[in-house]
What we know:
Residues 4-114 form the VOC domain. This protein is of the alpha/beta class.
Amino acid sequence: MALRLEEIVVDCGDCSSLARWWQVATGWQIVDEDSGAIELALAPGQTPSMMFIEVAEPKRGKNRLHLDWVPDDQQAEVERLVGLGASRVDIGQGSASWVVLADPEGNEFCVLAAR
């Protein structure tokens, strides 16, 4: 039996705001939307997708799971994302080759160096 990644689910306080932030950050499109949930994907029917679900509980502490993104130009992408509202985060990474950022609700993600 093999597993295939279908979607990444992100709990958030304001799914509309956070999903739209990630839509701009990734260039993905909204493929499904209803009260309290918005799904983004590169294209309809394409996986994996990102599902943003509104929850009442606030985020507490460091993520136990995070996304790693690989851009063509790490420095330019970090500057773009920070300009969109991401923040730099120090989780003890030291002088690593990746940059740790957090989205507007504090969810950490990494921007890796181009391969």
